[in-house]
Amino acid sequence: MEEYGERVEKLKDLIDDADYIIIGAGAGLSASAGLEYGGERFKENFPEFIEKYGFEDMYSPMFYPYKTSEEKWAYFAKHAYTNNIGMEGTETYRKLHELVKDKEYFIITTNVDDQFLKSGFDENRFFRTQGSYAKLQCSKACHNKLYDNRKLILEMIEKTDEDLKVPSELVPKCPVCGEEMDLNLRKDSYFVEDAKWHEQNKRYTEFIKKALNGKVLLLEFGIGFNTPIIIRFPFDELVKSYENVYLSRFNRSHLELTVKYNGNYYLVGEDELDKYISPEVKERYVPFNENIGDVLDNLNQNTSH
Ligand SMILES: [Zn+2]
Question: Which residue did the predictor score with more confidence, 76 or 226?
């Protein structure tokens, strides 16, 4: 990897010169922004749930087999509040907004915390693929409509009792089929993609098509291998396939590119790329394993606009 200062200068120039910027964001960006699912943040916000259930972080409780819906919603409400509804936009996301706000940009994200919405980004310029903690859907997906849950979540938190149960009348029921509602998260085959989801998907596809006529910078933040086929692998394909596409990947531990070699796909580390891809492709790849917020600071200090 080139020296940090050189990579920052290179990315700064790429941002200045790009006609279009596509931001791809995963869990690592929000973790870097302070929205971690474990550690102190978990312990501070969920002491009563740790005591009752022995939870160790905020991932597993979303899949825990609660005995009653009243108990399940007590956790879901606290989780949705802590990670979305009760959160303002964070500094890291605002720094990213500062960096791209005057550019032609579009965002694709698997994050469900709505940090882009809260941090100044244009609502018409992003595709939220996996849902939102701030929306409800029918748990059996009987109809394709989403419902804001902010008021309900706040009331649930206010009325959660000592046994960590919400009042039964607050457990949300589908207005169409009467089944219980659920948070709008892609966790099973019942995920609801409403009209807005399809509209965002269409805008994203059209943006890529338009962008490929100019100089494109892909800015990827914190995407690992949970769902790489949504953002990470397509970005790899774009940078390898088009000489006007550049990719800057931010990841603490996974800076590989997918490379097709003898008919098979391999993940190739940054230091071994020379063996598998042309120097032209490598030249268009700018990886960072440094702290995202720090790099954004340096980029904001250095950009001329
Ligand atoms: Zn229903």
Answer: 76
CATH of the domain at 107: 3.40.50.1220
pLDDT of 302 > 80? The answer is no
Rounded to the nearest angstrom, the distance between the alpha carbon of 65 and the centre of ligand 1 is 21
> What are the distances in angstroms from CA 127 to CA 23, 75, 96, 111, 205?
10, 27, 17, 10, 10
Distance 127 CA to ligand 1 centre (A): 25
User: Cα(230) to centroid of ligand 1, in Å?
Assistant: 27
The pLDDT tens digits of the residues spanning 131-176 come to 999 999 999 999 999 999 999 999 999 999 999 999 999 999 999 9
- pTM of structure: 0.95
Give exposure, 84-119, as e/b (b: 16+ Cβ within 10 Å): bbebebbebbbbbbbbbeeebbbbbbbbbbbbbbeb
Structural domain count of the chain: 2
Q: What is the pLDDT of residues 256-287, one digit of tens each?
A: 999 887 888 889 988 888 888 889 999 999 99
Span from the CA of 200 to the centroid of ligand 1 (angstroms): 24
| Ligand 1 centroid, distance to 49 Cα (angstroms) | 29
How many A from CA of 39 to the centre of ligand 1? 37
- Interval between CA 194 and ligand 1 midpoint (Å): 14
CA of 180 to the centre of ligand 1 (A): 7
Ligand 1 mean position, distance from CA 172 (Å): 11
Q: For the segment 165-203, what is each residue's pLDDT rounded down to a tens digit?
A: 999 999 999 999 999 999 999 999 999 999 999 999 999
Please tell me whether residues 159 and 273 are part of one structural domain.
Answer: no
Say whether pLDDT at 305 is over 80. no
Angle at 152 between CA 149 and CA 156, to 5 degrees: 130
Same structural domain, 43 and 77: yes
What three-state secondary structure class fits 90? Answer: coil
